[in-house]
Automatic annotation (TrEMBL):
Keywords: Membrane, Transmembrane, Transmembrane helix. Gene3D superfamilies: MFS general substrate transporter like domains. It is a multi-pass membrane protein. The lineage of its organism: Eukaryota, Viridiplantae, Streptophyta, Embryophyta, Tracheophyta. Its main location: membrane. This is Uncharacterized protein. It comes from Kingdonia uniflora. GO terms for biological process: oligopeptide transport. One of its GO terms (cellular component) is membrane. The keyword Transmembrane helix applies. Pfam families: PTR2. It comes from the Eukaryota. The chain crosses the membrane at residues 83-106, 126-151, 172-191, 197-222, 315-334, 354-376, 396-417, 449-468, 480-505, 525-548. GO terms for molecular function: transmembrane transporter activity.
Amino acid sequence: MEEKRSNAERRKGGLKTMPFIFANEVTEKLAVVGFSANMISYLTQQLHMPLTKAANTLTNFSGTASLTPLLGAFISDAYVGRFWTITVASIIYQIGMISLTISAVHPKLRPPKCTQVCEEADTGQLAILYVSLLFTAIGAGGIRPCVVAFGADQFDQTDPKQKTKTWNFFNWYYFCMGVSILIAVTVIVYIQDNYGWGWGLGFPTIAMGLSIITFVIGYPLYRNMNPSGSPFTRLIQVIVVAFKKRKLPNVSDPKLLYENEELDESISATGKLLHSKQMRFLDKAAIVTDKDESSPTPNLWRISTVHRVEELKSVIRMGPIWASGILLITAYAQQGTFSLQQARTMDRHLTASFQIPPGSMTVFTILAMLGTVMLYDRVFIRVARHFTGLDRGITFLHRMGIGFVISIFATVVAGFIELKRKHVASAHGFIDSPYATIPLSVFWLVPQYALHGIAEAFMSIGHLEFFYDQAPESMRSTASALFWTSISVGNYISTLLVSMVHKYSAGPGGSNWLPDNLNKGKLELFYWLITILQVINLVYYVLCAKFYTFKPIELRQKERELDASVELAIVV
């Protein structure tokens, strides 16, 4: 009976589940990118917001949508599992999209068209916008951290043939995500600009509804992992126990610290973390006292195992590297705000009758990112192997460092291109015409968009690799949430930076670096300010990477035997 149940379980999962899972991810990206890529246009042209307020609304929304994955990951790991988290979150997301679509269609839910004076959206209209965005942010928080882990769950890690497909899954995930983003910044944005926001938001809303139905239909095929408790609870337990035992002296031999493989097996199926010498004050949580020995069962609020202590150490060690990725997101965020406004003032015609929508300029970032990923996988890794001897070509720390350097070039280039744009605007008498199209091709902006895409291919994917590799095994499902949290903080830093620059660069007559009329502003100085911050951040990152300690891990017996059999087969 047990064997039949095991065989039935093995028949679940695998490649046949991918269309159902990817359908959910593709439509979520189609909806969120299709709106956010052109959101600055919606806020300024439909709701008549000032440019800086619209830019801050956009980055605040992006920041919130990237912060909620922590909540989604916690609920999934601790209570309901990934399938139900994705399902409920998708329904919440759908409600937000329906609300946004209705507000874009119903004339009373947005201000009237501009006549001589543009009337800004009132409090009630803005409330509907913010509530709708909040629903989509909450929905994204359940989808984003769980889809990647749920997809990886469909491949049996104990089966050598399926185990290798897990890494292929990440490539498929990025490919599908990239395709959906390309569709969003081209087709959806074109519909929004030429056929109205009702159609432009309606199509992604319908697609999201269909994806929910498709995802639920696939339920009998999925491999569902039961929630094994929140890793955050275990981290808090270690902190509490270490604090309680703070007055105890450290043991002379780490072997005297408490270990319990049976207790840790559910959170460390493939390997246990070994004792490390850093942060020895946390080791006190694993010191065995007379009270602990007299207890028949271990109380995890009184004593922690070495593995659980090392989980906390691993998370703390990842912190500085996690923080280094924030400023790259801050620089990247400007593409959806000020770079888009630059594009709006430039000649976007491809033919006499067709011009590129400003929101579609992101396509050059996506194309550059996907092209870089392909070249990295097919060419760069193979060349780098000859010099480093590493299977992956270079370490994820080196990959992230390259991304930082390229991002610095991106903002430097953006500043010089803005100088060129303003020079042309001034030479042709458009300095007082913020909405006039100057005789300068929008393709001048391609280098800054493309460089950001190349930087993302190195930095963002390297960041994800870092989290997956260095996070404790029990926290791999939460690793993507940590990645999205860095994106969240980066967007919030962008909001803060824009607000501070707008306030402290104010001059006589209401002038400042970032006015609604970019022709009279100093956007190039803002870009170069971000460049300086990124240079400082690069120095910080190099120091963090130099002194970073990789997590010490020992494979469990089952895995060691499997590795040994593979090595023997290769030798034979």
